Amino acid sequence: MFQAVLDAYGLHAGKCTIEPFGSGLINHTWKVYQEGIAYILQEVNTVVFREPVHIAHNIRAIKEYLDQTAPEYLFIAPIKDLNGDDFIVVNNRFYRIFPFVEKSCSVDFVHQPEQAYHAARQFGKFTRMLRAFNVQKLKPTIENFHNLPLRVAQFKKALEQASQKRISEAKFAIGEIIRHYGIEAQYVHLLDSGALNLRVIHHDTKISNVLLQAETGAGLCVIDLDTVMPGYFISDVGDMMRTYLSEANEEEKDFSKIAIRTDVFAAIHKGYMEEMDQVLTSTEKQFFIYSGKFMIYMQAVRFIADFLNGDIYYKTNYPKHNLIRGLNQIDLLNKYIAKESEFEGIIKKINDFHE
After folding, report:
1. Distance between CA 261 and CA 245 in Å, rounded?
2. For the chain, what is the radius of gyration of the CA atoms?
3. 212: β partners
4. How confident is the model at residue 282 (pLDDT cuts 50, 70, 90)?
5. How high is the pLDDT of residue 23?
6. Rounded distance, CA 112 to CA 266, Å?
7. Residue 26 above 70 pLDDT?
8. 302: Cα separation from own chain's centroid
9. Cβ-Cβ contacts under 8 Å for 19 (sequence gap 6 or more)
10. How many Cβ atoms sit within 10 Å of the Cβ of residue 117?
11. What pLDDT is recorded for position 47?
12. Labelling 33: which of 49, 100, 145, 319 has CA 20 to 30 A away?
């Protein structure tokens, strides 16, 4: 496989050092060295991304736009192969190569508020730079990716079809999902009222998808652009809330370790709004805090629905794994909601300072 792929890019497997790279859970990624030059080789997961050509189309369209409007921006697009193609296909598997950015790094967890600030600013900058881009030119790379009404409908169907044993085991979680149905109702209202503008959104804003300067930790750019497509800002901000605010991630079984760090919330707001303050409408800004509820709730719904369905979507490593994940996210949601008044105070203080 490596020989065929590397040949397509004018590289020689026999002269290359190839090693696994990164912590991504979707695509397979390797770092390739040849004669002192490093590259990133990646196989696209076509189970998740059923139309890799849509990914290539989106990245190409954005690159062409940024080359014209912001040529100084570090936009890491795949290198074209010797035939000028974005992918090389070997045995129906899609591969691509990226340049490796020297003196750069990424982190897997937010340990300090400054990391959240730099990440939020980079995601905000990405959307801001594309504010005048025709979002209709982009194709969906994962259909209904952040469609909360669909996820709730899937939960309801799973509940109807689940075994009594699983319903009994998930009784508390089911009750919590139902108790928070208002989060989905509010989302439907936001869309129906036109309160949210369709924008170019990354859709996967975990901290590892930001490239940082190795020495200073300052943000360089966003990476892993496969989920870039039309969406709403609450997806990007909400995913940062979901994955940055607590040091404990969705795999944590000890829920006492799940805690909301308000200093990290303030860092997310500061970084994102430094780039997006003049882009978001006054109406959109009212739903900055809601974004966290939106994303945390949606992930809880998906985990519990999968548990009720018999664990058919998410890979599980032990019995009730998806139930524990869902309960984890429910706990995070409830602790997030309990902090809403503090979040409002933080935003008010920031706004008062700038007036």
Report:
1. 5
2. 21
3. 105, 219
4. very high
5. 66
6. 12
7. no
8. 15
9. 30, 31
10. 23
11. 79
12. 49
Order of strands, edge to edge, in the sheet holding 210-213? 104-105, 210-213, 219-222
Ordered strands of the 37-44 beta sheet: 16-20, 28-34, 37-44, 93-99, 88-90
User: Which is more confidently placed, 46 or 24?
Assistant: 46
Quick one: pLDDT at residue 352? 81
**How confident is the model over 61-88, as pLDDT tens digits?**
999 999 999 999 999 999 999 999 988 9
- For the chain, give every domain's residue range: 2-100, 113-354
Encoded tokens for 313: 């979507």
Output the furthest CA–CA distance in the chain (Å, rounded).
Answer: 62
* Total count of residues recorded for the chain: 355
Judge: domain 113-354, CATH 3.40.50.300: no
SS (H, E, C) the chain: CHHHHHHHCCCCHHHEEEEECCCCCCCEEEEEEECCEEEEEEEECCCCCCCHHHHHHHHHHHHHHHHHHCCCCCCCCCECCCCCCCCEEECCEEEEEEECCCCEECCCCCCCHHHHHHHHHHHHHHHHHCCCCCHHHCCCCCCCCCCHHHHHHHHHHHHHHCCHHHHHHCHHHHHHHHHCHHHHHHHHHHHHHCCCCCEEECCCCCHHHEEEECCCCCEEEECCHHHCEEECHHHHHHHHHHHHCCCCCCCCCCHHHCCCCHHHHHHHHHHHHHHHCCCCCHHHHCCHHHHHHHHHHHHHHHHHHHHHCCCCCCCCCCCCHHHHHHHHHHHHHHHHHHCHHHHHHHHHHHHHHHC
For domain 2-100, give the CATH number. 3.30.200.20
Read off the pLDDT band of 36 (50, 70, 90). Answer: confident
pLDDT-based confidence at residue 2 (cuts at 50, 70, 90): confident
With tokens 């503090």, the residue in question is: 342
